[in-house]
What we know:
The protein is α/β, with parallel strands linked by helices. Helix content is about 35%, strand content about 10%. The strands form seven sheets. The chain has a seven-stranded mixed beta sheet, with helices on both faces. Strands 11-12-15-14 form a four-stranded antiparallel beta sheet, with helices on one face. A four-stranded parallel beta sheet has the order 18-17-19-20, with helices on both faces.
Amino acid sequence: MTYTPVAYDPYDFANRRHIGPSPAEMEEMLKAVGAPTLEALIDETVPASIRQAAALDWAPLAEHELLAKMRDVAAKNRVMTSLIGQGYHGTVTPPAIQRNILENPAWYTAYTPYQPEIAQGRLEALLNFQTMVADLTGLPVANASLLDEATAAAEAMTMAERSAKSKARAFFVDANCHPQTIAVIRTRAEPLGIEIIEGQPEALDPERVFGAIFQYPGTHGHVRDFTDAIAALHAAKAVAVMATDLLALTMLKEPGAMGADIAIGSSQRFGVPMGYGGPHAAFMSCRDEMKRAMPGRIVGVSIDARGNKAYRLALQTREQHIRREKATSNVCTAQALLAVMAGFYAVFHGPKGLRAIAERVHFNTVRLAAALRAAGAEVAPEAFFDTITVKVGVGQAGILAAARHRGINLRKVGRDRVGISLDETTDADVIARVLDAFGIHDPAPGGDTIGLPEGLWRQSDYLTHPVFHMNRAESEMMRYMRRLSDRDLALDRAMIPLGSCTMKLNAAAEMMPITWPEFGSLHPFAPTDQAAGYAEVVADLSAKLCEITGYDAFSMQPNSGAQGEYAGLMTIHAYHKARGEAQRKVCLIPVSAHGTNPASAHMAGMEVVVVKSAPDGDIDLDDFRARAAAAGDRLAACMITYPSTHGVFEETVREVCRITHDHGGQVYLDGANMNALVGLVKPGEIGADVSHLNLHKTFAIPHGGGGPGMGPIGVRAHLAPHLPGHPETGGDGTVSAAPYGSASILLISWAYCLMMGGAGLTQATRVAILNANYIASRLKGAYPILFMGNRGRVAHECILDTRPFAAAGVTVDDIAKRLIDNGFHAPTMSWPVAGTLMVEPTESETKAEIDRFVTAMLAIRDEIAAVERAEIAAADSPLRHAPHTVEDLVADWDRAYSREQGCFPPASFRVDKYWPPVGRVDNVYGDRNLVCTCPPVEVWAQAAE
């Protein structure tokens, strides 16, 4: 008998690990869809006129091969002790936080907490972060993080403009701010017509400005009291912003005590690795009366249907959706995972631990300064926290080289000075090596002399809430982190079928390298010869993204999708300006566009002209043509999403691009739906000039409860000279604090591309389209499918129309909350059409999980039908009482349906059922009674009574 080997490759990552349905399951799904083959389905779905000719052809790596390659690349980075500062510092990530948060899929695969009932754990963790920021800055309201310190400073500027009573059009920037912060502020100010006045604080004329930002401590170490300057600003009806350092604020007089209106900064040094630039959670806090002008997300406290405490996103519909083209911010994401880490760092150490770390850093800096001065060096400033600047004259290059020879990076300041910033990792050996680089061999003096005037010592308490006093035992911390994660529903529990959000597998092998010190410990401004590994990652990932998209160049700088939109539009703006066509300011945007699109266009100084949609959801070509003609030589760009926001491949996309180009405009194609294009369609080949790619969607970076993300932009050759620059690498137009944005998570997308290979990426796109059409086919008899292509197919997502059920009193909210009882996160609600659900299953979901979702949706439809037949009132139905908690299960039962029906609907797991910790959350109560820091325990004791 002839032996027949199995035709199965266990190391085929794409088809064995990433893509959910097996070949046999795909056959069953295709029968349900009514297509003979997968390729036939793609031919029916994607117009032939836009299909790419050349296949993606690089070979895949197995997981173990990928990790070996990553080790080789990591070895090309040289890990030094970087004392460069500039807002980036060495830190110690507590192992309990690294393993239980950063490396835990329960935390990193969670989605933005728009459904609060299934996000109570991460909401509490983010509330801890907000409380930490509010306490340390001395301002009562904080948000749940921003992208980086430079972005936060730019957001503070526009927030100040919106809030100030002054009529001035200038903004003062302290020359002691970090250079990257100044660069991003200048980029953001230029298209808005804001004049930037940069200078020393003593030169501030409050009457000339609507606001000012001061760095505290300054980039070169200066610590000064800004109380008088802030009072002068207030007298002129202007707003005061302080960029500050959370660790320093455990010792320093807080911004709130100086009268500051807004405080911003980075929480990176609270246990988050530098990662060659990110991701890190920036923070913002403000006075209470400014809270409604604050950009980003704010976690607040409300109550559920039983009156129990419940967390939620407060003021949830942020301004880019309310104000659209009048918005001053397009912030749509945060750095939630990193904010959670920083918040847990404060919980782990408590106020005394943080103070002890700060004192150790400060006293080490005092000793270093004393040793340098004793040897005759000129050291500034007199008052400092952790940073000093040494005047070295013509010896600058030699000292920098000598330090590097001893494994230390110092900061080059001007032509004759060297900057030194100490951190949590600095010990006696590091100080000795620094002194040795200066030719000083005497040990630094001992003692705990303070290098701050008494008037700048902090007098107020901070982190008084009990949550920051539970740090004595790791067992307690471990259990607290587990309790919070158990309250959440993340991708490690169930499918998260969110349209336009692409919650796909975040493979363990892709995630592992980000915590290796060769990648995590690099300073973003370290000499380039120390980052050869990162250079290889950026170059190869850029080349692969160019091949995928048909573009000629990429910038990795934007660290979110919305940041990518802005960077792309600013690249277009710079292109027109360079051609002497600065008058081009009109941007055509379809009415169905993402809320951030018009906000981004406004921030880029463009005038938004809204284009109608046709009845089938496509762009109304006649209206588009007329508005392009009306704009004429003022047309700057159009912004389109492809496949469309309605989940179909519009056949007219080439015509939209042609019309735009005929009038001299540029085409911005939003890459949010790139998961339906990879390997099938190249945006750069169908007429688009620039796109951002959501690496946290299509290219497998996890959402992390609402961030981190990356939004690099690809451009055709004519736009490449106008991509964002950076103070560290040359050029202007800086949009993020670090040259390569959140560089460390580029590793995830690179690993994804390497393991999938070109053919695997293409197959993933095909299966994403199959899964969406399978859901549409299974549900179309129960729910109307709102938009389908000319041949009755959807792209990688479909929209279920739930508006007809309103006549029976059933809302889209009722359906979303009832899905929680079945153990599912709801699809995207009421976008792009109010009263609908947009479903995107992704290619990673198995047929079994998709069928479970279909079972849930059909069971919910049966419950709606019972209401429609008047067998039960909507208000009495399980739909309106959803989600059901354990408290509901064990309480007296007086409802019009059984416990079984309410708590164990057909798609729910019996043994492993997910129980939401709270019932339906009262959003109105939360906004009317806004609480966004950890409330005292006695408040809840009183409420319970």
